[in-house]
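TICKET: design request
STATUS: open
ATTACHED STRUCTURE:
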């Protein structure tokens, strides 16, 4: 593993306002999303949907990398072009989700631990050969009555760092994703306190397990009110509290922060990113790694019909461009309407 190569990839993932398209839904999650537009969850339909995404004209101007799932990284377009090749032709780095999902945590069944460390070294080597240059592992932190526990945060932070070091040893940049869920009724204060705690634990583990901080990307939640919290923080408060929390916890050696959207409305997720970047200069690049906040309207527009592909791609290109602008603090309401 050459640290200079990891640094080059990590920097490319967050440079010039570009961000990451998270399209690494597991088959069961992908099927749930397809069901929302009345499309059957089959391998052929998942493939057709991802082909629509990855063949979007000019996507590479705004998107630096896309995260794939194990099934997806092995698939090709209807014309037989591997998805990996389609992405490379657009200057989009292929990435791969390598965790095996969450399981109930023994001893604290209202919380989860992310699994997938067994055999990970061998899987990483295969993904590198398939063309992946970065990876993702998501840990889930669940605010609730009596949660998150120290125990759950510790085991998840430990696993994140184990994964990150193995990824770097395989020449792959790890996206380290500790997600404090925005489901529920908790306040922005609770989200801030939990986010501060988990980030401290995660960086303690990353440093303790010798992860090269310059060769990783952090994918955190924003500091935000939970979806059903009666008092919703403003865009400005979310941006200010998120930046303040990250400045307290994320070493400046980390080249980039690429937020998850976590269930935020598409335009709100763009606005949050924009206001944060207007607060610069920041110690790291601040960009996006959105799943739902990039795909939601595009998926609805597509709805499984070949005749809708071009329109769905225009929606995805627009949403990507808006977030690209926001990652430089240059997003405006006029740009949004110019679609
Ligand atoms: P969302 O932006 O929809 O939260 O998805 C990002 C992701 O990759 C979650 O792991």
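STATUS: resolved
RESOLUTION: sequence designed for all positions
ATTACHED SEQUENCE:
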């Amino acid at each position: 593993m050459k640290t200079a190569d990891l640094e080059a990839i990590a920097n490319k993932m967050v440079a010039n306002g570009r961000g990451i398209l998270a399209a690494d839904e597991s088959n069961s999650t992908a099927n749930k999303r397809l069901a929302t537009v009345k499309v059957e969850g089959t391998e052929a339909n998942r493939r057709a949907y991802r082909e629509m995404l990855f063949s979007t004209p000019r996507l590479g101007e705004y998107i630096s990398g896309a995260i794939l799932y194990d099934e997806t990284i092995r698939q090709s377009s209807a014309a037989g072009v591997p998805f990996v090749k389609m992405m490379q032709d657009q200057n989009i780095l292929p990435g791969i989700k390598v965790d095996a999902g969450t399981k109930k945590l023994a001893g604290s069944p209202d919380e989860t631990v992310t699994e997938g460390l067994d055999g990970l070294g061998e899987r990483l080597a295969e993904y590198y050969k398939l063309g992946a240059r970065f990876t993702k592992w998501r840990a889930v932190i669940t605010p609730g009555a009596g949660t998150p526990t120290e125990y759950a945060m510790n085991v998840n932070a430990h696993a994140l760092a184990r994964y990150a070091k193995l990824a770097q040893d395989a020449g792959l940049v790890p996206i380290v994703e500790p997600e404090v869920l925005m489901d529920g009724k908790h306040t922005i204060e609770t989200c801030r306190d939990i986010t501060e705690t988990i980030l401290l634990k995660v960086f303690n583990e990353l440093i303790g397990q010798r992860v090269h901080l310059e060769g990783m990307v952090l994918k955190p939640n924003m500091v935000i009110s939970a979806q059903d919290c009666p008092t919703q923080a403003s865009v400005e408060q979310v941006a200010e509290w998120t930046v303040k929390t990250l400045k307290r916890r994320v070493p400046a050696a980390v080249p980039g922060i690429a937020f998850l959207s976590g269930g935020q409305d598409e335009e709100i997720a763009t606005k949050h990113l924009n206001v944060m970047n207007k607060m610069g200069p920041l110690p790291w690049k601040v960009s996006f790694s959105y799943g739902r906040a990039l795909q939601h309207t595009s998926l609805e527009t597509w709805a499984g019909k070949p005749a809708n592909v071009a329109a769905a791609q225009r929606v995805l290109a627009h949403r990507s461009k808006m977030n690209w602008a926001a990652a430089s603090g240059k997003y405006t309401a006029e740009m949004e309407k110019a679609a």
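CLOSING REMARK: The mean pLDDT is 98. The longest helix spans residues 188-208.
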